[in-house]
Specification:
heterodimer; A: mainly alpha; MetI-like fold; 2 domains; about 0% strand; disordered N terminus; B: about 325 residues; two-stranded antiparallel ribbon; 2 strands
């Protein structure tokens, strides 16, 4: 249909955007959004700095940053209300508040790691911290004497024993929940969830009452490993069960259809498929068990000497090493520095375990790693 | 050689009931399944043993004091009088304060990760939250004792001066720098840091399960992102988030090391939370077990039993709320 005064050319290629046109970006962060945030932040900084010590009766760095944040929120609210409608203001305000939560979490983690490192640096710097024990170290010894090797060895031994006790049992219980189920499934699942509520000190108290007082197992690394395994067991079971449920049902049915027994199906098909997820579950439980203090306090005693056997004799672990350094000898700054060094070591091990868990467990069940894909391709090309 | 033997009883001719098919596995299957059942039942065994031993060992304390064990406020070392009446409210107070700090922050972080964060950042943020959960509590305790405590005293002094109309914030002693050291408020701040990752990770999972269709419907009706979150995600995740909050409270109740390292131990209820002095059941057990006589140990076990009962109640309630909610049905936890 022609309109008066214009030719009736159909929409052709000359009306589509040419190469020089700018494409429309759908989710654009407008400059005014960024500038409002930055402006409110800087304005709040200035206002708080002027008001803080001089006008308002407040003091301390913590209060400063708390006031800065509150004033920032108020200024942002004011600046946003000047520019935008009420609906948009509400949306932007919640975005700012919610982002603060996310940033806060990252800041906390970085702060923990950084603070342990900075305060422990005086002790970590010396190689003897990593290679010697606290034997023959007195209260006034400098940081060039003494270390946490005995605590590290104790921690690793107890972790190994606890993993030995809890992981097979936990994975078997998870296989039970995922494979057999039946009438027992709900009670067992409720009990496992209830066990996660167990405060770690109660587990320590229980092993102390049972093993040390009743059964006569000496206060040793073994008793501590028993207590840690009680803490690790529900974590392993729950995480493994989640992983096992994700394994596709078609694999199970295919295995049954080929005539395999239930046992063979589980051992040859399901567990290997879920291997990466199970490893993640185990590694995460290990990270949790490594940092447990309360149950080990009650069951393993403490010693400044190296004790390589966990079956008798008191054994120190990294958490109890920190505990005793700070609470018993905390008035000597060298001990505090060593405690922070041990704390940094704890964090280091946890981060390493975590990275391993992420690297191994990042794949879904059945997904192949790049190396496995390459190997398959090579074998296919060869045949 | 594992062919399942099936036997089907034919239905009676007169009524139309479905036939019952019984499949007995081969012997190896039966053995395997029973081994698995045994492993599942072992969790029962362990929990039952814990309860039995705690009850058995704490019988003396309960028999001696009866119900007043829960209400008596003194914990006399030399005599035979014990009561958690002074320590239990403090435990609850610390957990309550920790929740007041941790629940809003954790929910905001969960909404941020599931709704507002750029997709590329999401995996990294989830890893950060998991790492925050894995940091040993003694590291938080060290940080709280040496870093936070000196720095937060200024704020607490301000609160005690200007918010003293709120009775728990009043001070009963002359304010000085040391009157705030070792107060329940500082312990609650550190404990809240430990509860945040638990609440955040569970809430985030729940919020991310909100149905995509309803989200798009909200956008199609012209809502902003916050409007969509408020009307779709939050109502969907309400049950899961409540359950997560209760799990966080349970964690705060059972926290031993941070409370012990920070708080100035007393044995009566200090409800002026800014003031120095407080305790929690777990911290009390950690402090007293070494020097306890047999009777004291029995009382400590009784206190531990009380604590376990409380955390168990909280966690069971949380599980119940989660499973009954709409989000719980989706996440099948």
């Amino acid at each position: 249909m022609t309109t008066i005064g214009s030719s009736s050319r159909p929409v052709g290629s000359d009306q589509l955007p040419s190469v020089g046109d700018v494409p429309i970006r759908l989710s654009k962060v407008a400059s005014e959004d960024v500038l409002t945030v930055v402006g409110a932040a800087i304005g709040s900084l200035g206002l708080t700095w002027v008001l803080y010590e001089r006008v308002l009766p407040l003091s301390g760095a913590f209060g400063f940053w708390l006031t800065w944040y509150l004033v920032f929120v108020i200024l942002y609210l004011a600046a946003a209300s000047l520019q935008w409608s009420r609906l948009v203001v509400r949306d932007r305000m919640t975005a700012v508040l919610v982002s603060s939560g996310g940033i806060f979490a990252c800041v906390v983690v970085a702060d923990q790691i950084g603070y342990s490192f900075v305060k422990g640096l005086a002790a970590i710097r010396h190689p003897n911290f990593w290679t010697t024990t606290m034997a023959n170290v007195s209260a006034t010894s400098p940081l060039t004497v003494g270390g946490m090797l005995h605590a590290a060895v104790g921690s690793l031994e107890q972790l190994a024993l606890a993993t030995l006790f809890s992981v097979p049992l936990g994975i078997t219980a998870a296989v039970f929940l995922a494979e057999v189920g039946g009438r027992l499934e709900r009670p067992v699942r409720t009990i496992i969830n209830a066990m996660t509520a167990l405060p770690s000190i109660i587990a320590g108290l229980f092993i102390y009452a049972l093993a040390v007082l009743a059964l006569g197992i000496p206060e040793s690394g073994l008793a501590a490993a028993l207590a840690i395994s009680i803490i690790m067991l529900p974590t392993v079971t729950r995480a493994s069960e989640v992983v096992l449920q994700v394994v596709p049902g078609t694999l199970r049915e295919a295995s049954f259809a080929l005539g395999a027994s239930h046992w063979r199906t589980v051992m040859r098909v399901i567990l290997p498929t879920a291997r990466s997820g199970l490893t993640t579950a185990v590694v995460l439980a290990m990270a949790r068990g490594f940092g447990e203090t309360a149950p080990v306090l009650l069951t393993a005693g403490f010693s400044p000497y190296m004790n390589t056997t966990p079956f008798h004799g008191w054994q120190a672990t990294l958490p109890t090493y920190i505990w005793y350094s700070v609470l018993i000898t905390g008035q000597y700054p060298n001990y505090v520095a060593r405690a922070f060094g041990a704390g940094f070591t704890l964090m280091l091990v946890v981060v390493v375990l975590f990275t391993i868990a992420r690297v191994i467990g990042g794949r879904r069940p059945g997904e192949l790693s790049k190396r496995q894909v390459r190997k398959l391709r090579r074998e296919a090309a060869r045949s | 050689m594992a062919i399942a033997v099936t036997s089907a009883r034919p239905a009676p001719a007169d009524d139309d009931t479905p036939r019952v098919i019984v499949s007995r596995g081969s012997r190896s299957d039966v053995v395997f399944r029973n081994v698995l059942r045994l492993a599942g039942l072992s969790s029962f065994a362990i929990t039952a043993m814990i309860l039995i031993f705690l009850i058995f060992r704490s019988l003396w304390a309960f028999r001696a004091d009866g119900f007043s064990f829960l209400t008596k406020q003194n914990w006399v070392f030399t005599g035979n009088e014990f009561g958690v009446g002074g320590v239990l409210p403090d435990t609850l107070a610390i957990a309550a304060m920790a929740s007041v700090i941790s629940i809003p922050v954790a929910l905001a972080t969960a909404i941020f990760i599931s709704e507002y964060a750029p997709p590329g950042m999401r995996r990294g943020l989830i890893a950060v939250i998991d790492l925050m959960a894995a940091i040993p509590s003694i590291v938080y305790a060290l940080w709280g004792r040496f870093f936070l405590m000196p720095r937060v005293i200024g704020v607490m002094g301000w609160i005690s001066r200007h918010v003293s109309w709120f009775p728990p914030f009043k001070l009963t002693v002359q304010p000085s720098a040391s009157s705030f050291v070792g107060s329940p408020a500082i312990a609650a701040m550190v404990v809240s840091l430990m509860a945040i990752p638990i609440i955040t990770s569970l809430s985030r999972e729940v919020f991310s399960q909100a149905p995509q269709g309803e989200r798009e419907a909200a956008y199609a009706l012209g809502s902003t992102r916050w409007g969509m979150v408020r009307t779709v995600v939050v109502p969907f995740g309400r049950g899961g988030a409540t359950g997560a909050a209760m799990l966080g409270i349970g964690r705060a109740l059972g926290e031993t090391i941070a409370v012990y390292m920070i708080i100035n131990t007393i044995y009566s209820f200090n409800w002026h939370v800014l003031e120095s002095g407080g305790n929690s059941i777990a911290a009390m057990i950690a402090g007293l077990w070494n020097s306890a006589s047999a009777n004291q140990l029995s009382a400590l076990m009784a206190a531990g039993l009380v604590l376990f009962a409380i955390t168990l109640t909280f966690n069971s309630l949380a599980a119940l709320i989660i499973s009954r909610s709409r989000s719980g049905a989706a996440t099948q936890d």
